[in-house]
Write a structure and sequence with these properties.
- The protein has 2 domains: about 40 residues; about 55 residues.
- The N and C termini lie far apart (about 75 Å).
- The chain is α+β, with helices and mostly antiparallel strands.
- It is about 65% helix and about 10% strand.
- The longest helix has about 35 residues.
- It has a 3-stranded antiparallel beta sheet.
- Helix 2 packs parallel to helix 4.
- It is rod-shaped and about 75 Å long.
- The protein has 4 helices and 3 strands; from the N terminus they run αβααββα.
Amino acid sequence: MSKPINMESIEELFDTQNSLIQEQNNLIKDLTLSVKSLIEISPDFIPLARICEEIGKSNQTLSYHLTSNYEPEKDFKKKNGKIIVDSRIALLIKEHYVK
């Protein structure tokens, strides 16, 4: 025998569904912003933060190394408050610090 339909249960289901849809929309919006920010970074340049993570050196150490040994706007740039490094220079830095 089937149970009678409870309107409160149906309303709760709709509320849950609406919450899930809102959460999905927020996630899609966040992902879209992340993808846009990744696209803005030229594939010829690598974020300094990624190089720091890969070789285990601090941002300050690598920033000092960059400014002491390489040319701004040619070998590295500041874009949206982040330092990005020419991919060829990134390789040289990795070789220097991995020794």
